Amino acid sequence: MIGIVVVSHSAILASGLQALAAQLGSPAPLLLAAGVDDPEHPIGTDAIAVMSAIEAADDGSGVLVLMDLGSALLSAETALELLPPELSARVRLSPAPLVEGTLAAVVAAGSGLSLDEVAAEALGALGPKQAMLPASAAPVANEAAPELDEGWLRCEVVVESPHGLHVRPAARLVAALKPFAAEMKLQKGEKEASPRSLTRVTMLNVRQGERLTLLARGEDANAALACFKQLAEERFGD
């Protein structure tokens, strides 16, 4: 499983992010390399600490590293130089936003995605916020819902979660549907997203009272739809 490392100048900031990520219920390892061991001047980063965190996070699958400020990148780059070449080769430094990127990466890694896929999820994690701000000129990555082909089964639910499908219930949806082999599409009105991507799901901006439809086809499509329906009845665990 891909490991995640957060490099931050502040141990308090990183610990808060770790606590937030823990609410998503992902099994992906999240290690911190934050602050420095100096009680009077605790703000800073340490390349040796970054190196140790990467080593602890790696199980042979790879590690994604997210950083907060410029010198954190320098520490991460130095850490890569200190690591054995075979480990350094499977480490990716990400330019993703620290909070959104870390949450998306943790969910993606916990779903068993590859390093490239986890890195892509992290990098696209700013999209939901951009899409929700009316003044944003950033393009919305939601795909238009196509006409249905034969073989698709569907389940439509009304989202009753008080805060809609925000990051925590969205992460539970992604994790719940992960085991199914069926091809799946998630729709809200004319918008469509992959239910296997936390970033894509949150970009649907699903609010309380709105209708959400899961389309599935394949050998376990009925089971996937039943899981989706039960999750909705449980308010997506929120």
TrEMBL record:
Pfam families: EIIA-man, PTS-HPr. Residues 1-21 form the signal peptide. It comes from Aeromonas lusitana. Its EC number is 2.7.1.121. Homodimer. The dihydroxyacetone kinase complex is composed of a homodimer of DhaM, a homodimer of DhaK and the subunit DhaL. Keywords: Kinase, Signal, Transferase. GO terms for cellular component: membrane. It comes from the Bacteria. It is an enzyme of class 2 (transferase). Component of the dihydroxyacetone kinase complex, which is responsible for the phosphoenolpyruvate (PEP)-dependent phosphorylation of dihydroxyacetone. DhaM serves as the phosphoryl donor. Is phosphorylated by phosphoenolpyruvate in an EI- and HPr-dependent reaction, and a phosphorelay system on histidine residues finally leads to phosphoryl transfer to DhaL and dihydroxyacetone. This is phosphoenolpyruvate--glycerone phosphotransferase. Residues 152-238 form the HPr domain. It catalyses: dihydroxyacetone + phosphoenolpyruvate = dihydroxyacetone phosphate + pyruvate. Gene3D superfamilies: HPr-like, Phosphotransferase system, mannose-type IIA component.
